[in-house]
Amino acid sequence: MSIAINCPEVLLISCYELGHQPFSLASPLKFLRDDGMDAAGIDLAVEDIEAYAEHIKFARLVLVSVRMHNALRLGVAASKRVRALNPQAHICFYGDYAGLNSEYLFEEHCADSTISGEFESAIVDLARVVIEDCFQYKKPPSGVRTVQSMAKPVLQRTSFVVPDRADLPQFDSYAHFRDELGELHLAGSTETSRGCKYVCRHCPVTSVYHGKFFVVPKDIVMADIRNQVEHGVRHISFNDPDFLNGPGHARRIVGAMHAEFPELTFNFTARIPHLLRYKYLLSEMKSAGCAFVISAMETLSDNVLNVLDKGHSRSDIMLVLDLMKKAKISWRPSLLPFTPWSTLDDYLELLDFVHTHDLVQNIDSVQFSLRLLIPPGSALLDQHANADWIGNLDAENFTYRWNHPDWRMEQLWSQINKVVRQSQNEGIDYSKTFTAIEALAYTMAGKLPPFGRIVSQKRPIPAGLTESWFC
Fold first, then answer.
1. What is the CATH number of the domain that holds 273?
2. pLDDT at residue 458, rounded to an integer
């Protein structure tokens, strides 16, 4: 069934945003509408692009949000469909991965322009000149990059407005919050800050923001939360790269949210060093409704952690594990087990750590298959551009190729990737998937798994969302 035709001049497309209703549509939609423009959004994570064919045919400007690697891959496919339906439309990709991959997007005619960093104001400026037929490739608006005009990421503070979520798909279309009893609740999301003041070498945020971050005013965040609660949301994910970049700001928002909505639960992402530095906040967060915390643990290898400049060590991981248990907050570590510096022994140690500390149900199976991405502009290239293991840029897949010095790690990654994909497609339990991964790893190492490696279902189950996230 097609959508009733009411074709706006500006069309925004999101492809994937962690299973949430996309902030990257809701925020610029409000900016555009406040400027008097007729704009609409499509979320291809839950909607069919063909249902919006008529919208696309009449759009003057199509903006594609690519804040994640997976979103960029899907965005390229979407842009090709837009080109087929409307060859005259100006296509702009925006988000962190847009700026990093501009050259490929221009060469393949996927995009006419790109915007990275704080994108809202640049989007409005671009929309004005496109609609007024005065866009110039040699002199685009500030912050807009074209094949004829370079532009740095926009790193000026934005005058934020309350996101406009009114016409986006309903919250029941997205990932739900699953509490410790297994009951499901509508989940929403928001952002209290943008960018990050830390510079982990493998992180795309580093390549765009270079250690800068900007806070979103408390009244804007609270209004966004309030609007979502009115539509039935009972859990909020704070999608900041690191919620504790500004601990005082985070504390004020959590306090205000809990005072107004005492039954609302939430989760956030925080660096391991921040959880240690601000450990005094954990009991307060728990009392205010914190259900789980995500941290980029990555690996137990101090060597790999140092190369990535993560700012934490194996001993720090053990301390945080203990802290989260004492705070009675579910800890959900994210992993990066396959890098050029990781060893097979590192992988076995990681599996043993997860098993011994009863974390199997806390970690999405896909995490055990994650492989280092090195996008154009990655800070890793500053030191490793001439390494023996690195190859040419695979522009189509938005990463430099690399091969592990140990062929066993390459084979193990391929095998585990297949197992994880099958488990995702067939809905196989985390415990069974973990057991299969463990068997593959020990077999590759020529060892037998330790005796009695039976993974049982943890009760109560760790709180989390119903959709595994992909970077």
1. 3.80.30.20
2. 61
